[in-house]
Amino acid sequence: VPAFQLFPSGHFSNGYTETYQLSGSDTAGGTYTATLSQTTQAPTTFNGQPAIPVQLIIEVKDGKTGTPIVSRTSTGYFSTDSGSRMYLGYIDSTGAAFIGAPISVIPQSATIGFSGALGSYASSSTGVTIIWQLTEANNGLANLVIGWTTTKNWSGEGIYTIDQSGNRKSLTLIVIIHLSDSDLSITLSGNKQ
Length: 193
Fold this sequence. Notes:
The protein is mainly beta. The protein contains no helices and 15 strands.
């Protein structure tokens, strides 16, 4: 049974970067294009612990007009120990810090069908629970699914299609906004550049 690295080589090294060009639509008929990029930055501290920051920038435009809709920058913080890597928490685009408690070790590799928790994270106003699972993809690849639920009215998941070395081929981003009478679902997908 093949094992898949959950992160690619170099992912936690300063300067590592990935960019995805995404496009998609929502269940209300809107269409979108988006660019998502992540860059690993120099080691720092987060909540008093040594940490490796990974900055995430997402820019979303209207698919028909090209008008910018959303631009968000956030930073996630991973522990520095490669043998027991954990996701310590993150600072969102508003500057709110989400601190993890409890958090779980993320395995370096896993086989298809395995899943686990990253942890539960809380700011002063919102709670977020993040899980991961590895599912089957075509052509010897796997999907690394990162799913989150919040105490507010939205949830979502990011699905990276990876090879056994953890190299990411594509990304699908699904965000679900729970409205009073229905759910609005936005799906964006595209390849790594």
